[in-house]
Design goal:
Mean pLDDT of chain B: 84
Structural class of chain A: mainly alpha
Helix content of chain A: 40-55%
Mean pLDDT of chain A: 89
Number of strands of chain A: 9
Radius of gyration of chain B: 33 Å
Largest sheet of chain A: 2 strands, antiparallel
Oligomer: heterodimer
Low-confidence stretches of chain A: none
Strand content of chain B: over 45%
Number of helices of chain A: 20
Shape of chain B: globular
Chain lengths: ~525, ~1050
């Protein structure tokens, strides 16, 4: 080869490798994600974004799709049920679950983590900021479509903050998405009442104004009825808060219950006509849980599909043998005596009190135990659990509670009996004479709630809202915290009751949250 | 000693004589050769001092271009024109000898092995080499000879204890672990903490596919002046690997075989049925019954006494067969090798099998044009036995439970605990990697001094992992059986073009330079498939089972880099050497504003021994050089698109509940926020070194000091949870490392039959000092504190000061000193008075400590109340040690007697702590069925008055008082220091008479052992283990235990 040729080749190579390259070779397009600026251009983008919001919320309620750090499932049952009177820790429990059941929680409790709810909030913040621009590029996105989507984003944000306020009280307020890492993300906690008044209620009011009225909703999404139900629930809760407005809030709750009656349920029927809620029949009661799309009563349930979401391993799941949570033994003994009178017993629980029975809740499964129980389908993870967020049954009892709180005992009795009679039959109806005072009425409503909404993530909030934590939980916690003599096996009950109320109504703020945000202060009592 | 000193003196004298005489003789020869011109044919053999013939030795008639090389038998034939001719006999690694021909017809030559390594050539990258004596930076080398002495199976093993400042750590037992290598402390937190591997010029992230036996040299570039030419990813040091090439002459075939037996190196005491029964009784308050005490004394299923450790471990067997062939003729050289390893390790059913081939060809097409191809292929597979379900379960499963079901099959879960033997035998986790790397290098000598090189190379890693859990070992054996199949393809290609320039001006000025460009690209694509409910467990394809949607996903990412680089070195009379490097890199991992990084370095060396004023030292000092270098290196190891905030989509990003709701896939902001301000991490290294060669090369001493500062540390910042996101990449802060390294090599004794060679290195380091930390960084990470002024690896724990004997022991005076109760009643609930620790009575104000809202009582751990607020909580944690060693050393010694060679390697590290997280975890008692450690069973507090190490073991108390503090308890912080005799090898070269019948050139048989002795106070399996998270060094969460190995081998050369 001639020198000249060689030089030419060398020069070409140098140019090809060196100068031939330019900035574009080291400017690559991401392969597994897209820029926000190039998204939110059509209706599909809104659909996907809403799915992102709901799936984050679903992960928080039903779980991540497998056994995770606090045992099984999401926080729906941990926050709402395990600290109450119907459930307790099982033989297989972790410390976290034992702490919940014994009211001895630590900041290290693995369910004391609000990051999942804030994940929902951040996704709704993104939605609220970016949905409106879709109209510019997709003519098919009508104002109605846009408003319905925005209404759900607002309502989901409010619902998430509502959980935060109920579980932890004060909390940082974020109403815009955090996208710039160069800006500090540290925020101190905002007062709970401020969150209720400046985020939750305005968001729900806005959602109601945006949502298309009179439509037949899909039960898996927040619709007109769900917005009314959440808002009424918020007012009920606000009434119980320090600085809440008491009666005025109950009145507001009643206003929103009545707006709920005007909305349509999943079957297209109105939720209430002439002040009477449209309830499922006793015979089809179980449809509320296993088939909510086919019933008039459900308002909003959480969807699940094990094929894509994994195992719906809620803490009282029937597919696993080592559940961390079981029914409280006294509760179970008391309720199973009503096996023949209360139609809900056989549809909700296994009446055997042995292992692999007492730790299973059958409500969400198409399984009906008889008086000798049922053998769980062990190892079978393929069940879908549809957790109800709101349904006419629990709203009816709340309506009764609001009425009792405002002194309207007649309405309260009427609504309480709607649920009571459905379970026990007409002959068992309460009479006005049996429940002469508001207090007695509320006690009866709470008793009904215990059975009707068993395992529906509401119990502990009901106890706080009605200020019944001490009366109901003290004797139970004294038993649970009793000391058993290992030789005589005699248990001496504790005498401390529910320690450090009302501080410990709230959960501790998790250590990981405190570590990541130095402006946070721990809740008193922890 | 006296004798060797005399020897040294005489040698020094000889050297001086030579210096004077040789030039005179040469002059004489030159003049005489002019006078005569008769042709004389001479023949001869060249041998080494052991009598072994040397092949390819160059013989040159001095002052001419007439020369020849020895053949396969070490023979040569040459014609000279003058009996006064002098033959210059030279061979790499041997002292060049000049032999006058005289009137002899047969001139046999014996060459002595060179002791001084100064003339050795060190590869410095991009076609450049430098004489060892001219090195300006800090480079450590390991040669093929050193590798051969130890038969390592991985690069980390080959480097273990060999080079000062290099911390090579292996997981001795795990047949699939490649080990980790860290050069001069940590300068980086991300996965980029490993060094850059440059294999025959090609930049790689690892060298796992290479067989150490194919390596000619490993050079570790420790300072900036050496590594800056690899600026882009050189911040963690660079390891240059040159594979073996062919040699001119007849084909040489070499075979090597060894077999090693391995046993569990350190057995731990496991809980026996008797220990467990005792524990359960105490745990249940002394009663013989209770749910957790084994109630059934006749059930055979519950009355075993298994030592799972004995059942799980076996004698390992490792076989290695290596075949290599090297040869060539003028212009064409080749080297090829095949290597097979079958490693059946010490856990049953745990194995690795690998097959490696390498083929290197050098083709000198013309005087000027040369083309080289390196191609290697590697296949490795094995069964990666899950340590968590086997080695760790040894301590978790109750010893009294049977291994078998009544039908004789292996029991799976019993009492919530896996059967370690069944898991090891029946569970499958088979990773397989196929790697192919090909590398074509063409170079052309444009002028005498200027060479152009272009290269193109590619590497493909095809990784797949098959896992399977059969029905029988699932919970209750009711399934579902499940499996996954994961495939990941990594493709790397790399193009380089550069010019090398070498010129000597006059006699005093030497200039070498290189300049060029390179670009590379990495693609990484993965796919995962999950299956369950297999209809037949004999089949693994998807048609036999149902797909699990949540386990099906694919991933893709890529990155690219562009670089231009230049380096020049100028030497004046070999006395003053200056070198400078510049490199500019562009990385796709940063945003537009921060893509480019400039890296410069400079080094200076002064050969002080060449100065006149050093004349007095000539008697013992052969060579002395002082050197200094400073420069900057970079690191771009960050998520490929970390500079941009992206939206992610439902299925495929996480394993479960993957963002799908009611049939719609979700979109959401990636939990890892982008950071457009992200920029290059830069490490500045200063290196001060002295190279001393003394006593005719018999002693070399190299002290070095370095200061290594990392700026803009790339790391992940944890975001406040209220943002709804998890983390984002940031330039977190700055780290400083400095250290002193001393390398000493010597030959204290060298006689005809016996020689003793000793090499040692020691490193004193202050590693990972955090000099600046972004205020948003998370301070507490698990058991560690990351804070400005602290060190990486600082353990942040509660200080355990024992266990309260009585309830009344928990009393403190106003200043927080613990008081001693006197007159304590039997229940430990009342005391008549208190004294200070020194015995003086105390009657002042007293307070008690609380934890978790409870007043600590007898049997609770005594925690140090650092802030004296009476409450033991997170605020009482303190830094109680560090996981990074302060001192590392390695000593390597060879003893040669006639045909026998013995080699010892010791390595050690001091000054580090280890958190024994396994023991801590076992003692948590989180499960009713997990026994604690034996130490805890017999040293726990049981009744008031007990002086105990471990807290109250009553089941009723469990951890109510927060006495275990998993991950935060200083009781489990142990001293990690160790000294290890990591290898011993005894080899024997058979005399030629024995093997010449089989036409072999050499036969060497050897016996050796690895990890024969370890001195340590660490209580768990082994104080040395790899760490995946550089922020958490020394956290023992359960590793594949190390083995002790012994075996034999044979090496035959033809």
């Amino acid at each position: 080869m001639k020198m000249k040729n060689i030089l030419t080749i060398a020069a070409v190579l140098v140019i090809a490798i060196g100068f031939g390259s330019c900035k574009k070779d080291i400017t690559l397009t991401p392969t597994s994600g897209v820029l926000i600026s190039s998204y939110f251009t059509n209706q599909n983008d809104i659909t996907a974004s809403l799915a992102g919001i709901y799936s984050a919320f679903q992960e928080e309620t039903t779980g991540a799709g497998s056994a995770n750090d606090e045992g099984y499932g999401g926080r729906y049952n941990y926050w709402g049920d395990v600290r109450g009177d119907a459930f307790t820790s099982s033989t297989f429990s972790t410390y976290s679950v034992i702490e919940m059941a014994h009211n001895t929680m630590e900041f290290s409790n693995s369910a004391a983590d609000w990051s999942g709810l804030y994940k929902v909030i951040s996704r709704t913040n993104l939605a609220i900021q970016y949905y409106p621009q879709v109209q510019n590029t997709d003519p098919n996105v009508t104002p109605t479509i846009l408003n319905n989507a925005l209404a759900q984003a607002y309502a989901m944000r409010a619902e998430s903050y509502f959980y935060v306020v109920r579980v932890w009280g004060d909390a940082p307020m974020w109403t815009t998405p955090y996208l710039d890492i160069t800006q500090s993300a540290l925020k101190p906690r905002t007062k709970a009442l401020t969150l209720v008044d400046s985020v939750i209620i305005p968001d729900l009011t806005k959602a109601y104004s945006l949502i298309q009225k009179g439509q037949t909703p899909t039960v898996w999404y927040v619709g007109e009825g769900a917005i009314c139900s959440i808002l009424a629930d918020v007012y009920m809760w606000r009434a119980s808060m320090t600085g809440g407005a008491g009666t005025a809030d109950y009145q507001n709750a009643i206003v929103w219950y009545n707006k709920l009656f005007a909305a349509k349920g999943p079957t297209g029927a109105l939720y209430g006509t002439a002040g009477t809620p449209n309830l499922e029949t006793a015979a089809n009661w179980k449809n509320l849980f296993i088939n909510p799309t086919q019933s008039a009563e459900p308002i909003w349930s959480i969807y699940w599909d094990y094929t894509v979401n994994g195992c719906a391993c809620v803490p009282v799941f029937v597919g696993l043998s080592n559940n961390y949570v079981q029914l409280d033994a006294n509760f179970q003994a008391t309720w199973k005596k009503q096996y023949k009178t209360d139609m809900r017993v056989a549809k909700s629980i296994d009446t055997l009190s042995t292992l692999n029975h007492i730790n299973l809740l059958y409500k969400y499964y198409n399984l009906t135990p008889n008086a000798t129980g049922i053998t769980p389908v062990a190892g079978n993870l393929n069940f879908n659990v549809y957790l109800p967020m709101y349904r006419m049954g629990d709203v009816t009892l709340e309506y009764a509670e609001a009425s009792a709180q405002t002194g309207d005992l007649a309405t309260a009795l009427k609504y309480l009996n709607l649920i009571h009679v459905r379970a026990y039959g007409a002959a068992a109806a309460y009479t006005a004479a049996q429940l002469p005072t508001a207090s007695a009425m509320i006690d009866a409503i709470l008793q009904e709630d215990l059975y009707e909404t068993l395992g529906e993530g509401k119990r502990f909030f009901q106890l706080i809202r009605t200020n019944r934590v001490h009366t109901i939980m003290d004797p139970i916690l004294n038993l649970r915290n009793g000391v058993t003599d290992p030789i005589t096996l005699i248990t001496t009950p504790a005498t401390t009751g529910f320690i450090d109320a009302p501080n410990r109504y709230y959960w501790p703020v998790s250590q990981s949250a405190l570590n990541a945000n130095t402006l946070l202060k721990q809740n008193p009592g922890y | 000693m006296e004798r060797s000193y005399t020897l040294l003196k005489s040698r020094a004298r000889n050297a001086i004589l030579n210096l004077v005489l040789v030039p005179l003789l040469l002059a004489a020869c030159y003049t005489s050769s002019m006078a005569q011109s008769t042709l004389i044919k001479i023949t001869g053999t060249v041998k080494d001092t052991k009598g072994e013939t040397l092949i390819g030795v160059s013989l040159l008639v001095k002052g001419t271009k007439i020369g020849v090389a020895t053949d396969i038998d070490g023979k040569y034939a040459l014609t000279v024109s003058d009996p006064k001719a002098v033959l210059v006999v030279s061979y790499i690694g041997y002292i060049t000898k000049e032999v006058p021909v005289g009137d002899k017809k047969v001139v046999d030559v014996v060459l002595t092995e060179a002791e001084s390594t100064l003339s050795e050539v060190v590869v410095t990258g991009y076609g450049q080499t430098v004489k060892k004596s001219d090195i300006v930076g800090s480079i450590g080398s390991v040669s093929a000879k050193q590798i051969k002495e130890r038969s390592p199976t991985s690069i980390a093993e080959a480097l273990e204890g060999q080079i000062a400042g290099v911390q090579a750590v292996t997981d001795g037992g795990d047949p699939l672990s490649p080990g980790t290598i860290q050069i001069r402390g940590m300068s980086s937190l991300n996965s980029g903490n490993g060094p850059l591997y440059v294999i025959d010029g090609i930049l790689n992230d690892n060298a796992s596919f290479l067989d150490p036996q194919d390596i000619a040299t490993i050079e570790v570039l420790k300072d900036a002046a050496s590594a800056a030419i690899y600026g882009v990813r050189g911040a963690n040091g660079v390891i240059l690997i040159t594979t073996k090439g062919g040699v001119d002459g007849k084909t040489r075939l070499n075979t090597n075989y060894y077999h090693l037996f391995g046993r569990l190196a350190h057995k731990l005491q496991t809980t026996s049925a008797r220990d467990l029964t005792y524990y359960r009784r105490i745990e249940n308050g002394g009663a013989g019954t209770g749910a957790a005490v084994n109630p059934d004394s006749v059930s055979t299923f519950d009355n075993e006494d298994n030592d799972y450790q004995n059942l799980l471990y076996r004698t390992g067997n490792k076989d290695n067969i290596n075949l290599s062939v090297a040869g060539g003729q003028k212009g064409l050289l080749y080297y090829g090798s095949l290597n097979y390893i079958n490693d059946q390790s010490i856990i049953i059913n745990s194995y690795a099998r690998s097959f490696t081939s390498l083929f290197n060809v050098d083709f000198q097409a013309s005087d000027k044009f040369k083309i080289t191809n390196h191609i290697s292929a590697n296949y490795i597979t094995g069964n990666a036995v899950d340590v968590g379900n086997t080695a760790s379960t040894v301590f978790q499963r109750n010893p009294w439970v049977s291994l078998y079901r009544p039908d004789g099959s292996m029991a799976g879960y019993v009492e919530s605990k896996r059967n370690p033997v069944a898991y090891a035998l029946l569970g499958e986790n088979v990773p397989t990697t196929y790697t192919i790397q090909d590398d074509i290098i063409a170079s052309y000598q444009i002028y005498k001094d200027l060479r152009f090189t272009g290269s193109a190379s590619g590497r493909l890693d095809d990784f797949d992992r098959e896992t399977f859990i059969p029905l029988s070992i699932t919970s209750g054996a009711v399934g579902p059986n499940s499996g996954t199949s994961f495939v990941d393809n990594k493709l790397l290609y790399d193009l380089q073009a550069f010019f090398n320039y070498t010129k000597t001006f006059g006699t005093d000025h030497t200039l070498t330079a290189v300049a060029g460009f390179s670009r590379d690209r990495h693609n990484d694509n993965g796919f995962n498939l999950a299956l369950q409910n297999y209809l037949s467990e004999a089949i693994r394809v998807s048609s036999v089972a149902s797909l699990v949607n949540t386990g099906i996903n694919s991933t893709a990412t890529y990155s690219s880099t562009e670089s231009m680089f230049a380096r020049a070195q100028y030497a004046y009379k070999d006395k003053y050497i200056v070198n400078g490097t510049f490199r500019r890199d562009g990385s796709s991992r940063f945003g537009d504003q921060n893509k480019w990084g400039d890296f410069t370095a400079a080094g200076f060396a002064w050969r002080i021994s060449s100065e006149k004023f050093m004349g007095w030292s000539k008697k013992f000092l052969d060579d002395a050089k002082v050197r200094y270098s400073i420069g900057t290196l970079g690191n771009d190891k960050e998520t490929d698109f970390g500079y941009e905030t992206l939206l992610n989509f439902g299925v495929g990003t996480v394993v479960t509940n993957s963002g799908v709701y009611n049939g719609n896939n979700g979109v959401y902001v990636s939990p890892n926020l982008g950071n457009p301000t992200l920029h290059w991490e830069k490490t500045t290294i200063q290196n001060f070194g002295v190279d001393l060669t003394m006593f005719g090369g018999r002693l070399t001493v190299t002290p070095e000091y370095y200061i290594k500062l990392t700026n803009g540390l790339l790391s992940s910042q944890i975001l406040p949870e209220e943002t709804g996101l998890k983390s984002g990449p940031i330039n977190l802060g700055n780290i400083s490392n400095h250290g002193f390294e001393l390398t000493v090599g010597g030959t204290p004794v060298r006689t005809k039959n016996f020689s003793w060679n000793l090499n040692g290195n020691v490193t004193f380091q202050d590693a990972g000092l955090i000099t600046y930390l972004n205020p948003t960084a998370t301070a507490i990470q698990g058991s560690y504190l990351i804070t400005q002024g602290g060190h990486i690896g600082d353990f942040y724990l509660l200080k355990n000061q024992g266990v309260y004997r009585w309830d009344v022991s928990n009393e403190y005076d106003a200043s927080g000193n613990r008081l001693l109760p006197i007159g304590v009643n039997a229940a430990g609930t009342t005391a008549t008075g208190y004294t200070e620790a020194d015995g003086t009575p105390y009657t002042g104000v007293m307070h008690q400590l609380t934890r978790n809202g409870k007043i600590l009582n007898g049997g609770s751990t005594i925690w140090q109340d650092v802030n004296n607020d009476g409450v033991i909580d997170e605020n009482d944690r303190q830094v109680l040690g560090n996981g990074v060693p302060k001192v590392l050393f390695g000593v390597n010694t060879f003893l040669t007697y006639k045909n026998w060679t013995m080699n010892f390697l010791f390595n050690a590290s001091f000054g580090n702590k280890i958190y024994n997280s396994i023991a801590n975890g076992l003692n948590v008692e989180s499960s009713n069925y997990t026994p604690p450690t034996v130490a805890a069973i017999y040293n726990s507090w049981i009744k008031p008055g007990d002086i105990a190490t471990y807290p109250n073991m009553s089941g009723a108390v469990k951890d109510t008082y927060g006495s275990i503090a998993n991950g935060e308890n200083s009781l489990y912080l142990e001293d990690g220091a160790f000294i290890r005799l990591s290898s011993v090898k005894l080899s024997y070269n058979l005399p030629a008479a024995i093997f010449s019948k089989i036409k072999a050139r050499s036969v060497n048989i050897y016996a050796y052992g690895n990890n024969l002795l370890t001195w340590t106070n660490y209580s768990w399996y082994d104080p040395e283990f790899t760490t995946t998270n550089p922020l958490q060094p020394g956290f023992d969460s359960g590793k594949y235990p190390r083995r002790r190995e012994a075996g034999f081998g044979i090496n035959i050369g033809f």
